[in-house]
Design a protein that fits this description.
Layout: H1 14-38, H2 50-70, H3 77-98, H4 108-126, H5 132-148, H6 162-165, H7 183-189, H8 204-223, H9 238-245, H10 247-265
Length: about 270
Amino acid sequence: MNRTDASPATGRLILLDEIRGLTLISMILYHFLWDLVYIAGISIPWYHGTGAYVWQQSICRTFILLSGFCWSLGRHPLKRGLTVFLSGWLVTLVTLVFLPENRVVFGVLTLTGSAMLLMIPADRLLRHIKSFSATVFLTGLSYFLFLLFLPAANGRLANFTGLYTGEGFLRGGPALPDGLYGGWFGAWLGFPGADFYSTDYFPMLPWFFLFLTGYLLHRLCAIRELMGAAFLRKSHIPAAAFIGRHSLLFYLFHQPVLYGITMLII
């Protein structure tokens, strides 16, 4: 397959593994505190505040953006996409059976697997765009659409004027039609019904646009021939790189381990 991107033959980009590994470590710490608060019943007041929300968003946004950036670097996108997508449904099945009150439906793995699969046809179109300025425009548009649909699960689009009026970015925006909401497809897309519940919910809207932003950022780097930079292949934190290389396994098994530790604490 002809790509303008860096190919696997040029060497692994270790820095990306390390960023992914550090993000996973941050996620594990965040989930451990979640277990302590919501399963063990330990009071951690700041965990319900703005700081914890920013922490959580830093994890998921880095992970999804990086996943999009790395999409072009791997081989067998269909196999990778199906593996991640089915792993997401495995998490859903396990939580429905063993932790129904804390079930995960359309979580981050289902999202990234879906995005990986959707990028297969999308890449066939986008790879023909060679212009740097056109790619910059598409990158900005994709991120704008991510922000626009960020509050869609709550029935509205983003309120950009709220940044200036003090009304709030995620509140007070244009309302979306009630008919969009409901059903499994609606929940997967980003329009959950009133009875939908998931402790880890990442629908396609808005998060696919963040994944796409990462993909387009990679294309910008490829057009400018930045992917061959030596610092990308230099190891800085080997342990983080190891975790990043095996991110799916760490993601699948970290929560059962944390749950076991939490049960011992209780």
